[in-house]
Amino acid sequence: MAYNDVYVFLQNLVISLWAMWEVRVIVIHTLVNFVVAVALAINQGSFQAAKLYEVFIKKLLPLVMIYTVFRFAGTTLAGAPPEAGFGQFIKLAGSIAPYAVLAAIEVLLISDLVDNLSKIPGLGGLIEMLPTGILKAFLKTS
Asked: What pTM, to 2 d.p., does this model score?
């Protein structure tokens, strides 16, 4: 395979992924968490520019990969023809599973965001003022 073929394949892959609104939500939410984490690191004096790329890729890439594989598998199951032998329950599960995975990813990202926000001086008190059960449910205890 020529270099140009690989480049075109990767370009089409990124365009296809970005076309999914769910992937855009994951990317934007990860970017917000990333900026808050960088702000926290700068505030605490532990910022290391060399780790920016590594941290962002280790967080974003796995989440997009996990959602995408569930989305493609779910779409395939939900749209399978009757002769494939999948029952209605499996087709329904294929339709719902990607959104359940997206919800789990969002809970993880919200948890990280609230945890980092609570560590920024001045915002910890704000988190404490929230009604129990809203964002406190997302705070990490360890």
From this structure: 0.80
